[in-house]
Amino acid sequence: MATKSASQLSRGVKVLGRVTRMAFRHRARMAVAIGATLAAVTFQLFIPQLLGGSVDQAYELFQRGAGVDEARRALMLYAGLLFGASVLRGLFTMLHNYQGEAVGQHVGYELRLAIYRKVQELSFSYHDRVHSGDLVTRGMLDIEGVRLFVNTGIIRLCVLGVLLGVGSYLMVQANALLAVVALSFVPFVGWRAIVTRLRLRKSWHRLQSRLGVLTRIMEENLAGIRVVRAFSGEDYELGKFERGSRRALRLTLHRIGLQVRNGTAMSYGFFVAMGLVLLIGGRMTLAGAITIGVLAEFLAFMLILQMPVRQLGLLVNSFARATTSGERIFTVLDQEPEIRERPDAKELVVTEGRLRFESVSFAYEKDDDREHALENIDFELGPGETLGIVGPPGAGKSTIAHLIPRFYDVTSGRITIDGQDIRDVTLRSLRRAVGLIPQDSFIFTSRLDNNLAYGNPWADQAHIEWAAEVSQLHSYIQQLPEGYRTLVGERGVSLSGGQRQRLAIARMLVQQTPIMIFDDSTAAIDAGTEQQIREGLSSISHRHATIIIAHRLSSLMHADEILFVDDGRVLERGTHDELYAQGGRYRALYDLQSNPEAVSADGP
Ligand code: ADP
């Protein structure tokens, strides 16, 4: 138990140290912020001394029976000094507040960019495990927790540290015994701060995870809004969200309870010390051990400390939140992408465009040797050749496609392009050579031509139009009022499933990659249009190696080689005629698709 909290503490210190280092990278701003803090606190600390001095002087003038003019002159001087100290304190406070906040905003900006950059780099295996809603929460709410720490944590800690440090020195100089009484609240407050920080940290951790779940629910609801409406799932969805929100509310109330109780206990500790100063200091004044001015100085100091001590609760909360949020952010930032380039990775040199799978096996879970998604896959494919892959759902067809641009790395065996192992070349050069049209084509909220030129922003209009023509999309685009400049995506013209797939095909054609993979990307396109696309592609297909994954056999019957895959293994391979003659699974599928009634009549 003790070792657990010790390790938590050291982890927390490391996280806060890292945030603090990030803040101190803004040297000039931090120097101004801390300099202004010191100046503001120094001027603030003049105030009790000036007050004490003025009280002592007033008392002396009174005892001496000084004239009105003399008394006014003397007091005006103190009043002027007090006014000057207060104004300067205010100006420096404004400066440190601005600079502290500015550094916090810079740190937030840097972390936001770093997370976004990391999300672009992380491998698919990471995205398979971590929900995007959770990443969104980390990229927004957790950054807020860290950002606030700079001003409400680091700078406020400086204010409090200097106030207490210099104030203690001044008080000890004035009277050591009374100084001990005045500062008697410090150990109590310190103990409360440590205990509550740990509790608050746990509470923040639970709350941030819960908010991640809420973001996830909302994100899924919006993505699947059509399913929700079609199945009248609104009440169920609302209930799910309400339960999640209620849990978040309960956690927030618990945290606020902790924070308020702690703040109150700290304030009480402080007021007890203040009462003791009044009691003991009053007795010492009556006994003549200190002047009335010294007592006034002590009381003024306690009044100055009152505000920062009250804010201590916020300071502790800021530390707790930043530790939790920082840890959640740094866990993402420190994540090493599983798919990485070798330090000596070279550009892929495509001489011919020949793709080879050599005894490729693959499992999604590295340590799980039970579940191989692919086992011993071999094939070779050159330019002008087409490989068809067919098989039941879950057979491993898409997995084969995903290994080629290195979305995942093979578990054993190797994949080469023109003799170069794809793990030895840069990811950018590899992905420039491999065009993959996935099952679900994504459309960005942007103009049609921007969507088409996503992989090759320098493509000219003629090239874009050619790609759309081959994909049988050109005539549709032309009859839109704004043609290629039409806005599509979430807020634009909505495209049908078949149009989206055609757009995805055109997008790949604009990029012109030596290897083209169609991963079930014509399923929503009718057979006639597909035939037209295939004819359009035939003029360029001699330059490309093509892989077609499809359920409809007419999509791949023309292929030079067809693999029938099931359970991650190649069960049958050959041309359509060879497979047909074999009379195996491929033949059964062909018979089913070409004449389903005859097959069911023959069946048992
Ligand atoms: P197909 O394309 O033939 O329908 P897939 O290649 O998508 O099949 O899937 C092959 C197997 O791998 C299936 O059992 C599937 O559940 C599993 N699988 C697919 N994607 C993942 C993933 N990201 N993580 C874990 N398992 C996966």
Overall number of domains? 2
Low-confidence stretches: 600-604
CA-CA gap between termini: 66 Å
Approximate strand percentage: 5-15%
Q: How would you name the oligomeric state of the polypeptide chains in this document?
A: single chain
CATH superfamily of the largest domain: ABC transporter type 1, transmembrane domain
Round the Cα radius of gyration to an integer and report it.
Answer: 36 Å
- The proportion of residues forming helix, as a percent range, comes to 55-70%
Enumerate the distinct ligands. Answer: adenosine-5'-diphosphate
Could you give a short description of this structure?
By secondary structure, this protein is α/β, with parallel strands linked by helices.
Folded structure, characterized:
The chain is an alpha/beta fold and 604 residues long. It has two domains: 23-333, ABC transporter transmembrane region fold (Up-down Bundle); 355-602, P-loop containing nucleotide triphosphate hydrolases (Rossmann fold), CATH 3.40.50. The protein contains 21 helices and twelve strands. The strands form three sheets. A six-stranded mixed sheet has the order 6-9-10-3-11-12, with helices on both faces. The protein has a four-stranded antiparallel sheet with strand order 2-1-4-5, with helices on one face. It is elongated and about 125 Å long. The model is unreliable at 600-604 (pLDDT under 50). The structure holds adenosine-5'-diphosphate. Adenosine-5'-diphosphate binds next to helix 12. Adenosine-5'-diphosphate (ADP) binds next to helix 12.
